[in-house]
Amino acid sequence: MTIRGRDGAFPDVRWGSSDSSGARVLQRLAATRPGSATIRSLVPVDRWLLRRSGGRYTILGPFGSPVLLLTTTGARSGQLRTTPLIYLHDGDGILLAGSNFGQERHPAWSTNLLVHREATVAIGGVDFPVTATLLQGDARAAAWQQFASAAAPYRAYVLRTDRMIRVFRLARRDMA
Length: 176
Description:
Largest sheet: 7 strands, antiparallel
CATH class: Mainly Beta
Radius of gyration: 15 Å
Strand order of the largest sheet: 4-3-7-8-9-6-5
Number of helices: 5
Structural class: alpha+beta
Order of helices and strands: EEHHEEEEHEEHHE
Strand content: 25-35%
Shape: globular
């Protein structure tokens, strides 16, 4: 497992390689509807593994996918909700795409961030308080292009839905 980072930036935590033959096979599988359904069915297992390991291990880890645990406050319930998500680095912030595997509905975590911008992410066993910003216009388009370039499934997800996939940028916030 590799952990890299600098002061003020989120660490880059992953093991395996996103360029491996296994990662390429997983991406081709994830770009299909049956593959997306299979991966979606593994989310509860991944959530359990990530929680048990404090965000250090994920079922996608051996394939080089950077995964974090996002804890949001429920938009209606006010209860804490934790979701494993793939993320991308963006300078001193991170990007999240509400692709929901190309389903017609936005993922609940993205609605939670619209209502409660403050959240927490766990990366490599370290918790970071964050503030989310919904990207729009050119900023959203540029961020989405990063996801589409990083992994083939994102290019497939956008073709499966008529909704605009939400993209968020998370910035670290100080605990005062």
